[in-house]
Amino acid sequence: MTRDLSARFLDIAPEVQTALRQGAAVVALESTIITHGMPYPQNVQTAREVEQIVRDNGAVPATIAIIGGRIKIGLSDEELTWLGTAKDVLKLSRADLPYAVSVGRPGATTVAATMICADLAGIRVFATGGIGGVHRGAETTLDISADLDELARTPVAVVCAGAKAILDLPKTLEYLETRGVPVVGYQTDSFPAFWSRASGIPAPIRLDSPSAIADLIETKKALGLEGGTLIANPVPEADEIPAEEMNNFIDEAIGEAMQRGVVAKAVTPFLLSRLFERTSGRSLTTNIALVKNNAALAGRLAVALSVSSR
Ligand code: PSU
Ligand code: MN
Fold first, then answer.
1. CA–CA separation, 309 vs 117, rounded Å?
2. Which of 121, 250, 277, 292 shows the smallest number of beta carbons within 10 Å?
3. Ligand 1 atom 5: residue of nearest CA
């Protein structure tokens, strides 16, 4: 991005700015997980702990959100708390990002929007919980997350715990393949299903170290192939909820969403909060654990990439 454009739209935190200038490791973090993915106060506490985990693994964290018409790359503690408690924060994907910036409404960035902002700032690695994907019933609703197309066009590596099991996972993987997105299972042969370590669907590629993933990313870039890379990192065994157990709750929650006419952007937040209630909070404990696990791997990957591009 040119200096002019950057100055016009981006507020990059000084620590992040310095790291980027030195070619040091930086990890982008999203904010929809804070505003629409977890309840207060766990959302704010998790966001802080995740930033610390990125640091412990050798990288500088940059949580991204839109505040006062500015694209914030790195939030202060006050901004983070405000975001985690504010009402009416928009959930921003690619389609909504320019609106929030132009009218100055506060917005949290989804995976798609975080990738766009990270790329504008020159950040190559991003950690989240689970990406959006092809929803069950997409044959009729056409509900396919913009996260998937973003992965196909924007050169950011996204570390996740697979796609949320509320989705149609085989169709999600088909779509990613069609759009040319490399999907890497980290130390696993099975594509993970967010709360569960395995979905029963094979991971398209398996790699076992951050440096091997960094090599793949550099090779993709050198070949002139546009778009990102998806790294699917299974939730730690101690924190997982087995798929058989989770599936009943998921079917119930999806049925309820349909009954109540929940559509579009509201679907994922609705299902996450219903599952939190149905599992008596266990789904949230697992969600927190997997995000932390992803932050650690993303930190190590960012370090590997900063070393390989020296
Ligand atoms: N990971 C989580 N919790 C979340 C999300 C990811 O652990 O809430 C968010 C991300 O911002 C992702 C979004 O982009 O869910 C997907 O929304 P949709 O299905 O409407 O595209
Ligand atoms: Mn959707």
1. 21
2. 277
3. 33
Distance CA 224, CA 137 (A): 35
147 Cα–ligand 2 center, Å:
9
| Digitized pLDDT (tens) for each residue of the chain, 310 residues in all | 566 778 899 999 999 999 999 999 999 999 999 999 999 999 999 999 999 999 999 999 999 999 999 999 999 999 999 999 999 999 999 999 999 999 999 999 999 999 999 999 999 999 999 999 999 999 999 999 999 999 999 999 999 999 999 999 999 999 999 999 999 999 999 999 999 999 999 999 999 999 999 999 999 999 999 999 999 999 999 999 999 999 999 999 999 999 999 999 999 999 999 999 999 999 999 999 999 999 999 999 999 999 987 6
Alpha-helix residue ranges (DSSP H) falling in 69-168: 77-85, 97-103, 111-121, 138-141, 146-153
Contact 96, 113 (CB under 8 A): yes
Could you tell me which residues are beta bridge partners of residue 28? 62, 126
Instruction: Determine which one of 72, 164, 220, 292 is catalytic.
Output: 164
Q: Which residue's alpha carbon is at the smallest distance from atom 16 of ligand 1?
A: 132
pTM for the model stands at 0.97
30 is catalytic: yes
Q: Has 49 been annotated as catalytic?
A: no
Going by alpha carbons, the residue nearest to atom 17 of ligand 1 is 132
**In the block, which residue shows the tokens 């070619």?**
23
Q: Does ligand 1 lie within 6 Å of residue 145's CB atom?
A: yes
Cβ of 287 less than 6 Å from ligand 1? yes
Which domains does the chain carry?
1-123 (3.40.1790.10), 128-310 (3.40.1790.10)
C-beta neighbour count of 254 within 10 angstroms: 19
**172, 136 contact by CB (below 8 A):** no
